[in-house]
Design goal:
By secondary structure, the protein is of the alpha/beta class. It has three helices and eight strands, in the order E-H-E-E-H-E-H-E-E-E-E. It has one domain: Cytidine Deaminase, domain 2 (3-Layer(aba) Sandwich). An eight-stranded mixed beta sheet has the order 7-6-5-4-2-3-1-8. The structure holds zinc ion. Zinc ion binds next to strand 4. It comes from Paenibacillus plantiphilus. This is MPN domain-containing protein.
Amino acid sequence: MIILTPDQIQMIRQHSEQDYPNECCGVVLGIFGEDGAKRAERLLPINNAREEEARYNRFLITSEDLMRSELQARRLGLDIVGFYHSHPDHPAQPSTFDLEHAWPTYSYLIVAVAGGVSAELTSWELKSDRSAFDQESIKEEEA
Ligand SMILES: [Zn+2]
């Protein structure tokens, strides 16, 4: 399970609509709770690093983005707990590309954007054998 505030969910939705018809992506900083739930504390929107023609269907976070996010997390006493990205005019289901580029433990939030308007928001965690994703619940809670 991942816990987000209503404002954070709104931020993800706004980012996805801003970057439509391209995919947007970002990093979720937060805390791994003892109960196994992750709590989001800070979102870091990332500029899509893919070339123009590939932007429509693939998000990419570069290693520089990741290092910068890691540093920022450490500065704030947080961890990277997950990533978010959008699926313009596609369902909020992980693609094969998503599966091949995911790491265990993290949450992968996907927001569908239908005709420029954000729609379903889902979250996924990779199985430990990396064969597939398990859907996880999203809890909306004030900080
Ligand atoms: Zn995807």
